[in-house]
Amino acid sequence: MFEKxxxxxxxxxxxxxxxxxxxxxxxxxxDNGVIVTITGEQEVVEVKISDEALRDKKKLEKTLExxxxxxxxxxxxxxxxxxxDIMGDGGLAGLGQ
Length: 97
Known about the structure:
Order of helices and strands: HEEEH
Helix content: 55-70%
């Protein structure tokens, strides 16, 4: 029982470290003169729009949508990869035994 509690504490510590790492990670997506930057926690850091991109509202709206979706997908992949490290180290697998 003590070993399970120890593993749980270790897992919580690793999760806090990953959360901190994700907060510091900046992910950028770029398309048609638009650059979107978000953190690994999917918070928007910056949006840059070129003068040329401002000329076509419909195209700009679509480009923004695509950039945000790309950035979010990248952040999800990064988070999943980091969590895989915990799972592979006997994190959750060791709790059920």
